[in-house]
Amino acid sequence: MNRVSGHTFFNRFVDQNSIVVDLGANIGRFSSEMARQYGCACFAIEPNPECFAQLRNFGNVKSFNIAIADRTGQMRFFVAANSEASSFTRTSESDREISVPAMRFDEFSALHGLTRIDLLKVDVEGAEIELLDSLSDSFLLGIGQVSVEFHDFCDLVSKDDVARIVSRFRSLGFLSINFSKESHGHEDHLFVNTQRCDVGKVEFWTTKYLTRNIFGLSRMVKRWSNRRPSVAKPA
Predict the structure, then answer these.
(1) pLDDT tens-digit profile of 163-192?
(2) Which residue segments constitute the domains of the chain, with CATH numbers given?
(3) What does the pLDDT look like over 144-159, one tens digit per residue?
């Protein structure tokens, strides 16, 4: 398993021949790190023009200054001082409103010849429900792994909608693993397509419970280490 920028996935299904799509790329931390670690082709999509200005500096990542949404056309987009809080929804953090070009994901994929996607990362600040609802079953079955940051932890989406999306993926044969700590809803949720990724029952249950807790423990240790005051060495 690997975790990159808060998104956990089975790394043995990703290599230099893989296609990775990053929806809500922000300034490119996830895409650039995936390209660096695996040498794979990354498509980074970010509607915020200020973030995109930094994203396009990565030569090994194909970047697109558009929004992926449930419909194609111009859409209102609310920019926040904290770029990670910019979204289609006006919140208390929104500073200003702009208009951005948007495209359905199935149309984007057809336009760029993406007949398969090995890993899809979704972090679209509350628009994930409408986005996933807009995709057909056959389209989703063409994706190996889907890592979603659901924004139920900050009430941008409802827990009922998250449960409905999880149920749909399971009905299609995807394995569902929530790597998030309990207080953070489903901010690191992975769906694994068993038609494309050979994950057995033992590996699934081990990952779902043991690996998840190991990752959680490592996060706690890291936070404790960062907070621990430094002790000056004696001269």
Answers:
(1) 999 999 999 999 999 987 665 668 889 999
(2) 2-227 (3.40.50.150)
(3) 999 999 987 666 778 9
